[in-house]
Every structure is written in C-alpha cells, then in structure tokens.
Amino acid sequence: MNGNLSHSPQPVFMVDSGGGHPKQHRYYHQQLPRPPVPRPPVPRPPVPCWTFPPARAEMKNRGWGRMNGGIAWVLTLILLLVFAALGLGAYQILRLQTEMERLTQEIPTQMQSPAPQKQIGLNPAELNKNKQNSAAHLIGRADQSTSSGILKWEANLGDAFTEGVKYINGGLQVNKTGLYFVYSRVEFLSPKCNPRDSYTHLMSRQRTGHNRIIMEDHQEGFCTAGSKHPWMTGSHLGSLQHLKQSDWLFVNVSHPHLISKNYHSNYFGLFKIN
Q1: Distance between CA atoms of residues 201 and 219, nearest Å
Q2: pLDDT single digits (tens) 104-151
Q3: N or C: which terminal CB in the chain sees fewer CB atoms within 10 Å?
Q4: What is the CATH number of the domain that holds 180?
C-alpha cells in the first residue's frame, strides 16, 4: 500500500466463505508497522566554565562587594572628620597669631603714652603704717620696788625695744586687738636658803579696771636643809593670749628683793601673731 503513512492504518478484513453457509466473519485487525518514534535528544553534559564564576560564588562576591562598599563609606566619613578637625585647628592657630600681632602692636603704644595712671591701693605711707608690728622686749632693772610686787623693766637699754606697744610703770599696753604670744622669765638669787622657802611668779592682765591672772608658776623646796651655799632658781612663763586694744600686762613676783641683777636672766615681752 502506498497510502500516506502519516494517517492511522486502516484495518483489513478477511472473509472465509467455505461450507456454503456464511460463517461468522473473523477479522483480524492488523496494523501496519508504525514509523519509528524519534527519541528525545540526550542532554549534553555542561561544558566546564573557565571564564565565569558559578552562581553561588558570584553571590558571595556580591556580598563582599556590599561590605567593602560600607567600609569604604565609613573610612571616607572618618577622613572627612579628620580633615574638618585639622581645618578648625588651623583656623584657631591663625586667629591666635592675629591676636598676638595686634597685642604686640598695642603694648608699645600704651607704654609710650604719657597719660597719668590712677593709683590703686594704699599709698606708701599707709602701707608702711599697716606693716608696723606690735612687739616688745624688756629686760630687768636693778632697783625693784618691794611694796606692790610689780616688777619694773628697762625699755631702752641694750636689746630692749617697744614697737607699736606702750610701756609705763612696769606694764605693757597693746594698741591692736589680736592674738599675741606673751612671755616672762625671772631669776631668784639669795645667799642663804631655807627648805621651806617658796616663790611665786605670775602675769596678770588688766582690762577696763579689772585684773585677771593669765599665767602663774609656784615653786618650793628648791634648796636642801643646812646648805651654806647661795641658791639660785628661775621661772619661765609663756603662752598665746587674745588681747584687746588698750589691755595692760604686768609681771608680779612674791619676793621682788630676791630678783637677780643679771639683765639677760630677767625679761618680759610680747609680739602679735595676726
């Protein structure tokens, strides 16, 4: 058969007529052979890529590219801040140089100006007056009165002096209120000694007519019984006292007639602390 093979094959029926009677037709469906079905093409194995990276590596490189871009942006910002700081520092230095040049030009002009300047503060006379100290140092005298017990002193002999303090009849009068260190020393001397002998050395302050003892020393038993040698002993007083203006200070002893004649062993003084 020369028909078109692209159409479906037509069935062929074969009839057996033997025996005079028709028999049940048998038919056989015989199909013509079909043309071979083309097989799908076998996929070729992928050709190795030697020029382009795989997709995963490409994505990784893209991630690194983004990170590198962020780091570059941060570094750029830091550099900008550094340059801004350097520029500000240069501006401040330039401004200071300009100010120094201006002051350098003004100072000689002011020094050459003959205009009188106003004096601020105390004048020299007042300054010396304020610097005057309040102090005194008196030394003993040979003639002592035995009636009152108040010792008399030399104010102008040897190392004795008074500065800013008044001395009258054995007493020192302060002219400024403040803190003073006051002191006194006396020396007793006698050719004979009794073990029961004693002496008293004290300093008193007189304020508005009232007397007050501010320091006192009392000693006894300073010699041995039956001693035929002269005896000598001393007493020292000293302390800080807050004195007011016009206060008087005096030194009293129990036996003025026993005071030694040594000037430097008997003294009385004070000096202002503040």
Answers
A1: 9
A2: 777 665 555 555 454 454 455 554 555 568 999 999 987 877 677 789
A3: C
A4: 2.60.120.40
In a domain, 206, yes or no: yes
Is residue 139 a contact partner of residue 266, using CB atoms and an 8 Å limit?
yes
Question: Which of 187, 169, 249, 255 lies closest to 214 in space, CA to CA?
Answer: 249
pLDDT of residue 101: 82
CB 252 within 8 A of CB 171: no
What does residue 96 show for φ and ψ, rounded to 5 degrees?
-65, -40
What's the total number of domains in the chain? 1
Whether residue 195 lies inside any domain: the answer is yes
Residue at 258 is within a domain: yes
pLDDT given for residue 23 in this prediction: 47
User: Could you give the CA distance from residue 22 to residue 134 in angstroms, rounded to a whole number?
Assistant: 176
For residues 264 and 48, the model is more confident at 264
- Residue 108, SS3 per DSSP: helix
Q: Answer yes or no: is 6 within a domain.
A: no
Please provide residue 245's backbone torsions phi and psi, each rounded to the nearest 5 degrees.
Answer: -55, 135
What is the 3 state secondary structure string of 24-89? CCCEECCCCCCCCCCCCCCCCCCCCCCCCCCHHHHHHHHHHHHHHHHHHHHHHHHHHHHHHHHHHH
Look up the domain containing 217 and give its range.
Answer: 134-272
User: Confidence class of residue 205 from pLDDT cuts 50, 70 and 90?
Assistant: very high
